[in-house]
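User: For a benchmark we're assembling, each entry needs the component sequences followed by a predicted structure for the full assembly. Here are entry 17's components. Please fill in the structure.
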Amino acid sequence: MLSYIIRRVLQSVLVLLIVGLVAFAMFTFMGDPIDNMLGQERTQEDVDRLRARLGLDQPFVVQYVKFILSALQGNFGVSYEQGRPVAQILAERAPATLELALVSGVFALGAGIVLGVFTAIRRNGFMAQMVMTISLVGVSLPTFLIGILLIYLFSVELDWLPSFGRGEVVDLGGWTTGFLTTSGLRALILPAITLGLYQMTLIMRLVRSQMLEVLRQDYVRFARARGLPERAVLFRHALKNTMVPVITVAGLQLGSIIAFAIITETVFQWPGVGLLFINAIQFVDIPVMAAYLMLISVMFVGINLLVDLLYVAIDPRLRT
Amino acid sequence: MFKLFASTALTLCLAGAASAETFKWAGTTDPQTMDPHAVNSAPVLGFLNNVYEGLVRRGKDMAVEPALATSWEPIGVGEGWRFNLRKGVKFHDGADFTAEDVLFSYQRASSEASDTRSWFAPVADVKVVDDYTVDILTSAPNPIFPDSIANWMMMDKGWAEANSTALPDKENGNYATLNANGTGAFMLKDRQPGLTTTLAPFDGWWDEAEHNITEAVFTPIDNPATAVAALLSGDVDMINPVPIQDAARVDERDGTKVIRGIEARVIMLGFGQDRDELKYTAMAGQPNPFKDARVREAVAKAINVDAILKTIMRGSAEPASQLVSPAMRGFSDALAARPAYDVAGAKALLAEAGYGDGFSFGLKCPNNRYLNDEAVCQAVTGMLAQVGIKAELDAMPVQNYWPELRADNFDMYLLGWSPGTFDHEHPVRFLVTTPNPEKKLGSWNFGGFSNARVDELLPMVQSEIDDGKRQAMMDEITSIYQSEHAYVPMYVQPLVWGAQDNIELTQRPDNFFILRWVTVN
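Assistant: Structure for entry 17:
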């Protein structure tokens, strides 16, 4: 058991190190941050001096090792663009992304389950067919387009919701929240739908197919035979048994909601870490890009590790 | 239910409209820093022009006018300039503005750590004569010095020293990166890098306020579609820029308008002309045709600038004949004609130069630096094909583009140039003189154009006090680079801003957005 866990943790660390190495190898193709940092009137001498000071004249492996060594001491460097510690910038931006991910996760799960059950029990109904068809559109349209469409409909044409940003936020000692103001809540609606739409469709389809399968099971038939009310059969007995795979998928999807927030955040100018990353790419802000990529991979690797360890806890065969 | 929702939405909108003097605007780039001496870039200097001020400033027509100096006069014969400072000027924190602050701002802005250092290359010394008089001595006569310092902003010595920010620190940041204390019409109220920056009017400003803003909020919006939507939905009052393809839509919609103008930036083609061989396509290693001025002239004649402006720029831009636009100082009125579009003439020139059968070469182009830059390069490629020369286009993001140009990896390239001093001398110094790192000349002359007479004339232009003589020399330089076809200037880039109908503002050709000229009706 212990050796299994140790092996798993070591493998995860190795994956993280390789991700970082690949990232740093790619940074060398991203262009040169120097031109963004120096003005039009810079001389070659200025360019060389700054490059040496930032360590950009060294091979990427050396840059990478330096990054890892200082990251281990909790130092992610200083942003080229803002001239502030990267850790501080990430901490400022994280609440926006996490709140958005949370709301769209709740939306995806809630709407996904309700619609999934609905389409399963009315599988031949007109509305259910409509929902299924529309959901197909939802899956096949890119996030970018859905966001722009929603903005044009609800902000530009109807003027109901704000077209960009987070609205007013309240600072709760280092954590800025949009949950406490009307404008903050209104600002959440469109980006949360845009970000959660894909996951919602996924969960809906999963719930639907699980429901259809469960409803064919003997115990459902027996429950009906016992004369239980239909509501109890559907929600107490059937739905409960469809939830196991749904929860697993939803948990794994939470990571991708945070990671894929990049596009939604760009469309809505949502001030989270994804937007920060896009800006960093444009500026070739290597410390910010590196820290963001490492953070996201730590998150993914962490979730996978957790799932692996949970399997061990559940499945005794893995313990030997 | 719908009614309830709609009426709630309406109420919320009205609540938003009640504070109409709060002016919100959006641009693509967030100013990197609030330190006026750290970075020499248009987004930073443009933004900080609202907060800090220089000895002189530029008016609505770009002319230099008194700001923190009420007047200035030359000292002796080209020894320098004496500036008489305005009395009673206060910084935002209440401190008085005096000659000590000018000296301090000179030391800070010309320090090793500052990007604005190059502005002070002609300065030999700065002397405080008394509290309200400063002498700036130049190492050679410098007639345009007062014109070149409109963006040199004054910082309070006491404030900077009290906050240990006596020198700018671009890499690690310091107090002045996030805070500001100028003398300008607006004070920095709140700064959240990359998110929002809030300004409030400064009650103690020395000049009469023209604006009626009580608060101004800037948000960077990178995505052009989002910015346009924000303007159309009324979430912001002004955006810069409006993508050219969206301009008509913004203009036609009730409630919003487009403000068009001409920027100071000239878009041109450059050639690798200091080397013997081509670098790209199947012709790599063959003799370089662009060494021959006739071939460069053929390129100039082959390009139908009017067609580019009509289709790609949708009529917003103006053709260019020189490296600066007509509004700039030193523009040669006598040489304002562009080579006419002439396919037959271009072919004849190519035949004369021995390239009647055409040739192929590599054209490098950025795809996110200038308005529709890649589309322009594609059009250029098509037009050159009509005269029988085949360009292989390689377009890339600007962060990869400059390193390519620096590494000499091109046969032909696209470049835009905006003269920081609004003077013709600026592009000549950077683009036309023979590259010379020691003298800091020709640092953007990637193609290596070289002409002894231009190199000889430039220092004379720089130190000529007499305007007529100076213009005569400028005309000579212009005629040299025009007849040599050192570059092919194509057009002056347009400015396309969008605003709500109730906003009145002034668009300046340097693309600086000056808040003190904004009125919300």
